[in-house]
Amino acid sequence: MLGLWAERSMSAEQPVFREEFAAIPQRAEIRGRPGTPLATFEIVSSAEAADGHALRMTADRASGALLLPVDGVDLERTPILRWCWRVTEWPTDADGRTADRDDQAIGLYIGSGGRFRRTSLAYRWETRTPIGSTGVVSYAGGLVRVHWIALRNRESGSEFRVEERNVAEDWRAVTGEAPPKTFALSISCNSQYTRSRAVAELDWIEFVSAPADRSPAGAAP
Q: Which of 85, 81, 68, 109 has the alpha carbon at shortest distance from 209?
């Protein structure tokens, strides 16, 4: 199953950024929420992963995000985000459409802004939320807004899947604004609302330019 996707990930577009998780990246930072147990992030051996190892995240009634340093990525020039991920344990009965069940085993967040206003675009692997669902959630009295897209859910199974999204197009579609000049990339794992357990793995992640021979990929549903 991975053959076609692996070939696609090694296509002619040269990545301007790629992380294969042989180790926790330097300058990466793990952050949690006050008063909530912290999810764990570790490098594990994985026979199904392309290079035999992956970043595993585990949340046991917990929440956490790994902030991944990204340098030299211009979302106007290199807007295509590709990654390979899977979920092995889903937070019980979680649903991104409901505030008190808004847990995901894994989500990738593109965030921009400062202390008093922050906007994020999230690609999430949900549990019950229908694939293609979108939504907006606010935190900190509305100072933080997250526009999320449900790319997969429990019906997608637990095998590694490769995704490709045009972040610039998605950002314009959900926010009505141009993509940010600078941004942060974070990887989250949450199960605090459903008081359950979630486990997911990320094999690799990269940014590349949009192919010239086809229309931009990944427009928001």
A: 81
> Amino acid identity, residue 5?
W
d(C-alpha 196, C-alpha 121), whole Å: 25
Please list the ranges in the chain whose pLDDT falls under 50.
1-11, 213-221
In angstroms, the Cα distances linking 40 to 55, 56, 104, 187 are: 10, 8, 14, 12
Residue 14: per-residue pLDDT: 82
Global pTM reads 0.89
pLDDT at residue 42, rounded to an integer: 98
Separation between Cα atoms, residue 164 and residue 170, nearest integer Å: 11
Looking at the chain, the number of H-run helices and the number of E-run strands are 2, 13
Rounded CA-CA distance 85/125 in Å is 9
In the three-class reduction of DSSP (H, G, I as helix; E, B as strand; rest coil), residue 157 is classed as coil
CA dist 135 and 183 (Å) reads 21
Token representation of residue 63:
């929440």
The tokens describing 102, both together, are 């808004």
CA-to-CA separations, 52 to 47, 64, 203, 220, in angstroms, rounded: 5, 24, 9, 32
As a whole number of angstroms, the distance between CA 142 and CA 136 comes to 11
